[in-house]
Amino acid sequence: MTPNDDTTDEASTDENGEGSETDATPAADRRRTPGGGEAPEPEPIEPAAPEEFGLVQAWWGDGKGKTTAAMGMGFRAAGHGYRVHMLQLMKGGADSVEGVRGEYNAIAAVPGFTYENAGHYGWHGLLDGSADDEHEAKAAAAFERAEALVAGAADADLTEPLPLDGDPEDGVHMLIVDELLYAADRGLVAPDDVVALAESKPGDLELVLTGSHAEPAYLDGVADLITNVRKVAHPFDDGQRARRGTEY
């Protein structure tokens, strides 16, 4: 755009002759943006393929929100018609929460977003009545499942739309492996195997890994995005139990 272009807003002056700020993005310029300057409206979800997927993400830290962030991206991707699947390790249910998960109900209502829970009851390393060897067996089986899902994505054409009701083994655009980093931190999955999983993924698969209070340094140079979700304050420290609608 040249200085004399008639779509350029000229600076206005106040009563003292001083220049004042005008709209930094004139209407004509806004119409050239991807959104055309219009407020977004919901549209029907139809199968589509992402143009820029293919990164490895790692979400770790002692703060609340790692799984929440991953699922938020999953919902966003599914809203564009991309095929999304979430595989959860370590979360098989516990006495501290009810036998229902709000996220499962929501995922079931969204086309193209599916999940499976591969965790054992309770939590590894805690005196909660669960057996650590069962946690180990469940984690090993879940990791094999993650490998199968990555292999299925490698066999699919991820540059094309995928059936929203298709089997996740037939390919997904985004795979969320929730709590895999925590399983690696607990020694239930070898960190080297997590690296191998990330390095084996096809170029167009967005792979999102979550979990672990300890930094997954083994993913340095492997993951494209590494986010530390840091705790500043947490109601659990004051004895607040998990709440329906926020933690489950």
UniProtKB/TrEMBL annotation:
Gene Ontology MF: a single term: ATP binding
Record has Chloroplast as a keyword: no
Keywords: Transferase
Region of interest (Disordered), ranges: 1-49
GO biological process: cobalamin biosynthetic process
Coiled-coil ranges per UniProt: none
Top-level taxonomic group: Archaea
InterPro entries assigned: CblAdoTrfase_CobA, P-loop_NTPase
Positions with biased composition (Acidic residues): 1-21
Keyword hit for NAD: no
PANTHER family per the UniProt record, alphabetical: CORRINOID ADENOSYLTRANSFERASE
Name the record gives this protein: Cob(I)alamin adenolsyltransferase
Lineage, top ranks: Archaea, Methanobacteriati, Methanobacteriota, Stenosarchaea group, Halobacteria
